[in-house]
Amino acid sequence: MAPLIQNYIAKTTFGLEEILAQELLELGATDIKIQNRAVAFSGDKELLYKVNYCSRTALRVFLPLVSAPILNEEELYKLVQTIAWEDYLEVDGTLAVDSTVHSETFNHSQYVALKTKDAIVDRFREKFDRRPSVDVSTPDLRIHVHINKEQCSISLDSSGEPLFKRGYRVATNEAPLNEVLAAGLIYLSNWDRNCNFIDGMCGSGTILIEAAMFALNIPPQVKRTHFGFLTWNDFDVSLWKKVKQEALNNQRPFNFQILGSDLISANVRLAQENIANAGLEDIIKVRQNDFLTSVPPEGGGILVMNPPYGERMSDQVFVEELYKKIGDTLKQSYAGFEAWMISSNRDALKKVGLKPSRKIVVFNGALECRFQNFSLYAGTKRTSFKPEV
Ligand SMILES: C[S@@+](CC[C@H](N)C(=O)[O-])C[C@H]1O[C@@H](n2cnc3c(N)ncnc32)[C@H](O)[C@@H]1O
User: Fold this and answer.
1) Residue nearest to atom 3 of ligand 1 (CA)
2) Is 74 in the pocket of ligand 1 (CB under 6 A)?
3) Does the model's pTM come out above 0.85?
4) What ranges in 173-315 are assigned the alpha helix state H?
5) For ligand 1, is residue 308 a contact (CB within 6 Å)?
6) For a tag on the chain, would you pick the N or C end, based on fewer CB atoms within 10 A?
7) Is the CB–ligand 1 distance for residue 171 below 6 Å?
């Protein structure tokens, strides 16, 4: 029998939609449609497992069950009750309901989640005189309700915990980058994995770890043990083993250096712990160092950095001065490199004093950021060091 083809929606963060669409295409998805912070696609169950295991830029993957207009909570209740929940969940199983709401009628997401849960358990009670219980941390079935104006979509969440939780992070500093965003920045930088990769302000090492996993084609979820679909009624253990094995067989060699450093030695230790937990200590080298006096390796390469943003007003002068010195360091020492910086501080970015060849808008959490590229040509092309006006 031919495998069942279903429609899915992969969520991501703003600015990574096209990157995610490309990943989905490469994984074998069809009917790909870019949406706001999401990409719709079609495929079979094998693809659903693959996307969860191998996509670096998906945050969650939903299986939509129903989408219809609703005007009030009674209509929400009725819509939820039309779904044959007993096909997806045992009566003695557990469930959790999450919701996102952008609507004037429904303005309380927790209330929407509660109403949905009530409608589901009432359906079970009417049929079996018993009902599943709620488990918000590791439910057998995680349900997602999305209301946009009056359109309500109800989906199953195949991922469970969001996919940025890769399972390798043991330690964080104050402002770690989300793993999905870090992987997305690496893709946006167009790094072809044929040169050295550097993060001169590596903090807890997220960019370096995502870069190394990409360089070696290691699946991003290699360390993760839980996915929502593992407790679905139709879970196919041999298909899941096949998906994982094929992904692990796809690893590739990498013959360049991945180097990280940070000014603060405690952050370097955090990065080392995370790198060891990801099993990448032979691939990534980190050390304590001031980027402003750094000497890059021979042969050029790519530099992707997430410097401090200076969110407090009182830090502005310091951060602008830091960015100016970063620009000076790039000009003096990093000829031959492609440098990329992400920051929400647009005034400070102007102090870098180099003309960006690309500026991409992304969000780091709630912060709107620019991810900017500075091409630091070696030799005769030094005229690219034009100050930004
Ligand atoms: C926003 S954090 C980076 C977070 C990192 N991307 C992560 O995921 O954990 C900025 C880092 O820049 C480091 N830093 C600030 N000034 C530096 C300098 N002159 N040289 C090297 N690192 C510096 C800080 O210690 C901090 O760890």
Assistant:
1) 203
2) no
3) yes
4) 179-188, 206-215, 237-249, 265-277
5) yes
6) N
7) no
Strand order through the sheet with 284-288: 284-288, 258-262, 196-199, 301-305, 337-343, 367-376, 358-364
Q: Does domain 179-218+253-384 sit in CATH 3.40.50.150? A: yes
Residue 34 Cβ contacting ligand 1 at under 6 Å: no
Strand 94-102 versus strand 141-148 pairing type: parallel
Count how many residues are written for the chain.
389
pLDDT tens digits, 265-317: 999 999 999 999 999 999 999 999 999 999 999 989 999 999 999 988 779 99
Number of H helices, E strands in the chain: 10, 15
pLDDT at residue 389 in the model: 47
* CATH assignment of 6-157, among 3.30.2130.30, 3.40.50.2300, 2.40.280.10, 1.25.40.10: 3.30.2130.30
Smallest Cα–Cα separation from 75: which of 142, 148, 151? 151
